[in-house]
Amino acid sequence: MKNKVMRCAAALMLASFLVGTVVSATASKSNSEETQVAGANVVINDYCDMASHGKIEAETVEELSGVTPAAIEEEEEAVTELEVGTTKDGHLELNLNYSRLGIANHVDTYLNVRKKPSKSGKIVGKLTKNAGCHIYSIKKGWARIVSGDVKGYVKASYLTTDKEAEELAKTVGRDTVEIQTESLRVRALPTTSAPIYSVISEGEEFVIKKKDLTLDYVKEVIKDQKISDKAIKRAGDYEEIEKQMANFICIKVDDELAFVSKEFVKAQYSLKRGVKVKKVSASKKSGVSSGQASIVEYAKQFLGNPYVWGGSSLTGGTDCSGFTMSLYAKYGYSLPHNAAAQAGVTRRVSSPKPGDLFFYSNGSRINHVAMYIGGGMVIHASNPTDGIKISTAYYRQPVKIGRVMN
Predict the structure, then answer these.
(1) How does pLDDT run across 269-298, given as a tens digit for each residue?
(2) Which residues touch 4 (CB under 8 Å, ≥6 apart)?
(3) Which of 65, 90, 197, 338 has the maximum number of C-beta atoms within 10 A of its C-beta?
């Protein structure tokens, strides 16, 4: 019985994790030289095994639900296979055949996930608008769900469910790639000799901007990203770019474009996933000050609000440095409205504390900043698609961790 419950739960978790049709992206043998980075300093958050391995112990199911594994088995319907399809515009089509899909779309910004089915229940995670989840059951107005590595209860009235959710998923989902190797070089241009834009971590998901590259499209990226002639020459000039570009996908890394090897990613049509959150409290034992705890809890209020390049409004729209600048302004600290400039006025630390700033580079300059909120997570104004979001702190390899507040 236990093994059967575990298999059932595994299938349900896997369906929830994918929330869409998965298609492996393969590349030619000529692209095999784009290997993972050996010894990269990537710190992985304490992820739930079911999210990364597609399984969950029966005891964990019992802990989540408050009922026995046998009751779970009787309650849930069997999960059928996911079907593959493609829309007329070339996007992956979502064909969901598992028991219950929910989408948090009846919210302005985000939906709280609670440990117990009560408004007083501890908040354990958040679903931003249009994030998907698997629904175990709905009772007395509360849905018991799992999304990514977040599990708990949400108010069912904020979810679109079942067939309506499956139809909605086709419009609010995104073509994405999931990183399939421990650490992967992102390139400024689609060749293995191009400058390294960044290093990204296994399991992270990025929106696809262009799957089938053309030389004209690459030239548009070069113009938009202001890529230098020196970088183009290093990539092997246009002849080498044209030769290798079929092996790469163009993705959005926050608000800029870059390229990843198809060999080390999985292309899929997916919905946003839930994110874990944990309340930060001041403590002498942890060394977290009241100010650090307060600014982190303040920052979380703006999750899901819009991204606007050059903006600094926490509610109306902000970019990455405008976000951190405005957060710290609330607490009497003055920061410049520029990620690189903020890096220049913060004290470098090796062990992050809540409220510290993580700085990321595009290979030539610091181009993004996020605030550490504890638990291996950061909050940041990422891009127009996701707005202000929570990510793992090492979704990209940071080049500096800076402290503003002690």
Answers:
(1) 889 999 999 899 998 888 999 999 999 999
(2) 73
(3) 197
The pTM assigned to this predicted structure is 0.76
Q: Is 44 exposed, middle or buried (0-12, 13-18, 19+ CB in 10 A)?
A: middle
Q: How many residues does the chain have?
A: 406
The string of pLDDT tens digits covering residues 224-253 is: 989 999 999 999 999 999 999 999 999 999
The amino acid present at 9, given as its one-letter code, is A
Residues 363-387: tens digit of each pLDDT: 889 999 999 999 999 999 999 999 9
Per-residue tokens: 227: 């890529």
339 Cβ contact partners less than 8 Å away, ≥ 6 residues apart: 320, 321, 359, 366, 367, 368, 369
B/e letters for 369-403, b = 16+ CB within 10 Å, e = fewer, are: bbbbbbebbbbbbbbeebbbbbbbbbbbbbebbbb
Long-range contacts of 236-244 (CB under 8 A, 24+ apart): 236/191, 236/193, 236/194, 240/191, 240/193, 241/189, 241/190, 241/191, 241/215, 242/215, 243/191, 244/30, 244/31, 244/190, 244/191, 244/192
CA dist., res. 281 & res. 273, Å (int): 26
How many degrees, rounded to 5, is the angle at CA 81 between CA 78 and CA 84? 150
The pLDDT value recorded for residue 99 is 63
User: How far is 44 from 200, CA to CA, in rounded Å?
Assistant: 11
Task: Report which DSSP code applies to 149.
Answer: T
Give the whole-angstrom CA distance, residue 262 versus residue 276: 29
384, 388, 394, 398: CA torsion to nearest 10:
70
Handedness of CA 88, 217, 269, 172 (dihedral sign): negative
From CA 248, how far away is CA 192, in angstroms rounded? 10
Q: Which amino acid is at 140?
A: K
